[in-house]
Amino acid sequence: MTGAESVAVLRAGQRQLNAAHAAWLAMVAEVGSRGLDSQDEIVRLAAPDRWGADEVRTALRISAYTANELLDFAWAVVRRFPKLHAAMAAGGLSIERARVIHFWVRDMSDEHANTVIDEVLGHCSIDADRPWTSEQIGTRCRKLGIQLDPDWAQRRFAEAHRDRRVISWRNEDGTATLAAQNQDPARVAAAIARVRKLADDAKRAGDPRPLDHLRSEIALNLLDGTYADFTDDQILAHLATTRPTHDETVETAETDEGDAFETEPEPEAEPAPERETEPERETEPEPEPERAPVARSPHHGVQLTAKVSTLLGMDRDPAELAGQGPVHAEYARDLAHRLAAGQWRFAVTDPAGYAISSGLISARPIDWPKRRADDHGIVDLLIPATLLQALLDQTVTSPEVALWHPVLVEIGRHHLLATAGADTDNPAGPPTPEDPDDARRRFPRQGLRRDTQLRMTTCQAPGCRLPAARSEIDHTIDHARGGLTLAGNLGPLCEHDHDLKTKGGWQLIRLSDQKVRWITRLGVSYDVEIPPLIDPGERPPPRPAPDEPAA
C-alpha cells in the first residue's frame, strides 16, 4: 500500500469499529432490559429494572458500578436517542464522541436533547467537512444547553450534588487516591483553605517538609481521627513532633516549585504600658491547664492480611489491604507494627491453602504495642500448619522469629485446641461440645462470623471485591426456609448482592467449601471459586543473580 492507501484503510477500520460498537451497545441494552414478569416468564421490560445491570456485569466480568454506567449509556443511545445509534451503525460516530454527547444531553428534555444532537452530529464523523474534537463537541453541547434552557445548569448542579460521595481508588503504583465528589464548591474551598493555612503555619514554624506533604498529612489526620478534638494550635504542636530527623529531611526547593513560601518577619510587639502597683491580696490558685489530647489514629476500616512468613522477613510476598489490593512486603511489615494495638486474628491453613483453624490472639511481638480497645484496625495472620510446626520446633531460627515467639506460641495453642475440638474463643478451657441452639440462631455468634470472614475474604458474588468485613453474613439456604447458622451454610454478601439473591430472582447454590454457583434470572449459570487464603500454586518469578541486571 501507498501511504495514502494506509490512511484510507485506517479510516475504514474506524468506521467498522463504530458499527461494531453500535451492535454491541444494542446487545447490552437488550440483555439489561430482559426480566421476569409476574408469571416468572422472561420478558422485555419497558426500561431496565434494578437488577438489569447485574446480568451485564456478570456476563462481561466487570464491576457493578461499571455495568450500571454502561447500561445507562447503552439504553440512552439505543432507545432514547436512536439518532446517535444510527450514526454509530453507519460508521460515522465513534463510541468516544457518543459518550461526550450523552454526558451533556442525558438530563435535558428529549426535545432539547435532540436539538443539540442535530446541531453537533454533523461534526462528529471523520468524513465531516468541519470535524470537531471531543472537547469542541462538549463545549458546544453545554453552550446550546444553557441557551435552550437557562435553568438547566442549575438543575444539573442540584442533581449532581444529591449524588455527592467520598470514594477512593488504587493507583497503579500502589498508592491510593481519596476524593470527595460532587460537593458544595464553597465548602470544598473552605476545607482546602483550612488545610493550606495549617500547612503554611507549620512551614512558618520551621517544618522542613514540602507543603504538599504537610497538607496530605493534615488532611488524612483530620479524617482518620488522629486529630479528633484538637484545636489548630494542638494540631501544629503534634506536627512539630512528627518532623523528620536531620537524616530524613528532604530538599524542598524543587519539591515546592510553583508553590513558593516566604515567611514574613513577625512585627515587634509594643511594650506594655506600666500600671500602678496595687497592694497584694489573696488570689485563688490558677486552674491547671487542660491536658492536650493524645494524637491517636483509631484505624477504622484498615484491615491487613499478610502471611506470617512475610512479616518475619522469610519472603517478600505481597500482602493484601482490604478494599485497596496488594501491597509490598516492606509496607506490610511497617503497617502491621502500626496496627499492633488493633485486633489480631489468625488462620492456619492446610496444604491447599484453606483455613483449618482460626481465632483471636492477644500476644504481640516483643516490645510492640499491646492491644487497645479504641483501636479498630485488623491484622489477619496467615500461616500454613507445616510452617507453624517448624517455627515452634525451632527448625527455623532468626532474630525475627525470636521476636515473634509469643505470637507463634499462642497461635499454636489455639490451633491445637481447635483441631482437637476445643472452643477457640476460650482456648484456656477444656473442649466444649457445640451448642445445638446456635445452629438455629438468626445471626451467627462473633466467633462464627469472624471465622466466615477469614475463610472468605470478599463478597462471594461474581466479580464483587467488597471486603467481607463490610459485607453481610448470608445464609445460602435462607434462615426463614430452615437454613442453619453453620459454617457450611454461611458466606459474605454485600448489601446489593444479598438483595440480588433474596429479591432479584437469582439463586445461590453451594457446591462445596471452595465453590458456589449463581443462576441468574435469565437462566445463565456462573461458578465462583472461593480462593484459598494462601495459594500453593503461586511461585514468584526467578530473581536475577547479583551479577545479572534486573529486567
Features:
alpha+beta, 551 residues, three-stranded antiparallel beta sheet
The portion of residues forming beta strands comes to: 5-15%
- The separation of the N and C termini measures 37 Å
Average pLDDT works out at 85
Oligomer state equals single chain
Give the number of DSSP strands. Answer: 15
Structural class: alpha+beta
Identify the overall geometry. Answer: globular
Q: Helicity range of the residues? A: 25-40%
With strands numbered from the N-terminus, the spatial order across the biggest sheet is: 7-6-5-10-8-9
Structure description:
Mean pLDDT is 85; it is low at 250-283 and 422-433. The chain has helices spanning 3-32, 52-60, 64-80, 82-89, 95-105, 110-121, 134-148, 152-162, 185-204, 211-224, 232-241, 308-311, 329-338, 385-392, 399-403, 405-419, 446-455, 495-502; strands at residues 34-36, 42-44, 165-170, 176-181, 303-307, 319-321, 325-327, 343-349, 355-361, 378-384, 472-475, 490-493, 507-512, 515-519, 525-529. The longest helix has 30 residues, at 3-32. It has a 6-stranded mixed beta sheet with strand order 7-6-5-10-8-9, with helices on both faces. Strands 13-14-15 form a 3-stranded antiparallel beta sheet, with no helix packed on it. Strands 1-2 form a two-stranded antiparallel sheet. The chain is an alpha+beta fold and 551 residues long.
